[in-house]
Design brief:
It is built from 4 helices and 3 strands, in the order βααββαα. The chain is an alpha+beta fold and 87 residues long.
């Protein structure tokens, strides 16, 4: 799959074309020749989100089985203690 690259100034003036192109393939938007954003179709976004959710869900499940796992209460207590501490 090829990836279209377009400068931000051109993306702004040709936005309708950009979103039409993104329906078919990812479009990288650059500023000063550096990537700053990638526009993808809603379907591709959903697929990428599902992959990320599955990955992090598996990692969380594995972590919860670890002897070093910190549960919700311990996490909340720790955060509260940090926020309430006086340096």
């Amino acid at each position: 799959m090829t990836n279209i690259t377009i400068p931000a100034t051109e993306a702004k003036t040709r936005f309708a074309e950009l979103i039409d192109a993104a329906r078919k393939e990812p479009v990288t938007v650059t500023r000063n020749n550096r990537p700053v954003a990638v526009v993808v179709s809603p379907q591709e976004y959903e697929e990428l989100s599902a992959i990320g959710d599955a990955y992090w869900g598996k990692r969380a499940e594995e972590a919860s089985k670890s002897k070093d796992f910190v549960g919700k209460k311990e996490s909340s207590d720790f955060i509260a203690s940090v926020l309430n501490s006086k340096d």
